Amino acid sequence: RELEKHFHVFGRIEKCQVVLDGHSGRSRGFAFIYYETVEDASEARKVMDGKDIDGKQVRVDFSITKRPHTPTPGMYMGRPSRDFRRGSRGGGYRGSRGGGYRGSRDS
After folding, report:
1. CA separation for the pair 70, 84 (Å, rounded)
2. How far apart are CA 20 and CA 46, in angstroms?
3. Could you report the per-residue pLDDT of 59-71, keeping only the tens digit for each?
4. Which terminus of the chain has a smaller tally of CB atoms within 10 A, N or C?
5. 29: β partners
6. How many Å apart are CA 11 and CA 14, to the nearest integer?
């Protein structure tokens, strides 16, 4: 609630949301503050950007996203790259001695 203490002076706050790490429960170092009016938010941004709160300089700006990002499980969930299974003993050309298709070996 430290943020609310510093930011409520610019207008009525609808919501103050500190973003937490899902695994540790600790702050990820940023938050979203929702004001009732854009004018109040603009004033807060103008005055508070670059100020120190608890010994840390804060950056205040408008969010550029329209909705929250979809939560992630804390690990990359995209398609694995070719190097992803570097330690596997599968076929292919990378470091394999035979490779190719069955029956394609020169006798």
Report:
1. 24
2. 26
3. 999 988 777 767 6
4. C
5. none
6. 10
